[in-house]
Amino acid sequence: MFLYRLLSAAVxxxxxxxxxxxxxxxxxxxxxxxxxxxxxEFCRIMRIGGYKPxxxxxxxxxxxxxxxxxxxxxxxxxxxxxxVIVLSLIWQLFQKNSSAPTVDWAxxxxxxxxxxxxxxxxxxxxxxxxxxEWTVLALLTTWVGDTGAYTVGHWLGRHKFWPRLSPGKTWxxxxxxxxxxxxxxxxxxxxxxxxxxxxxxxxxxVAFLSPFGDLGISMMKRHVGVKDSWNIxxxxxxxxxxxxxxxxxxxxxxxxxxxxxxx
Length: 263
Prior knowledge:
The protein has 263 residues and is mostly helical. It has helices at residues 2-22, 24-48, 55-70, 77-93, 101-127, 131-156, 171-191, 196-209, 211-224, 239-261; strands at residues 160-162, 166-170. 78% of the residues lie in helices and 3% in strands. It has a two-stranded antiparallel sheet. The longest helix has 27 residues, at 101-127. It is globular, with a radius of gyration of 19 Å. The termini are far apart. The mean pLDDT is 93.
């Protein structure tokens, strides 16, 4: 498992680094593909659990949020959101085999809202002032923290952290992730000229709060009885499994940069 995770990371990280560095439409396309697959996986696991959300409308909502973030001057958000809500509800009225149509409709919207609304923040962050640096700070702090938690937990983990939702997580791994994340944020904040104080603050916020994104997806997967959102990435599961923490991190970093730094 560890070897698969390492090999997958060796392939995906350079591609991700290039797309983040390129920015613009390349970055938008990357986020659209990853978010679209994550949204599909959300609908997929809900269907395994016996529900019937409509992936087409979830994906439409995700793309709407991303395009609206990239081209705010178009002002397509309100109209697009209204259209998806209305059309998805009309669609649900014709689904004769649905045993819980209201739940299916709600899950359709929630899947798109959860992935799309959260992911839109990374588009706005990347396109903002010093967007490359803030985006790199968000991504690397999260990944280093996740790696620290996995590594420390694998070798030293003994005490369960949240057994009800994630039996594999330990207190040792969690604390290791906090320390690695804070260290990464501190170093990156200094190295990229964002400020040592901002680096420490962002590192701490991301390290402490982003694991709740992972726990949230664990809650959903346990509810429907699946281990991974998919098995498309060897050693990592699905894209939803990989971006669950990042969806929290980009929101945290965006609002920190917007409210505290004033960008």
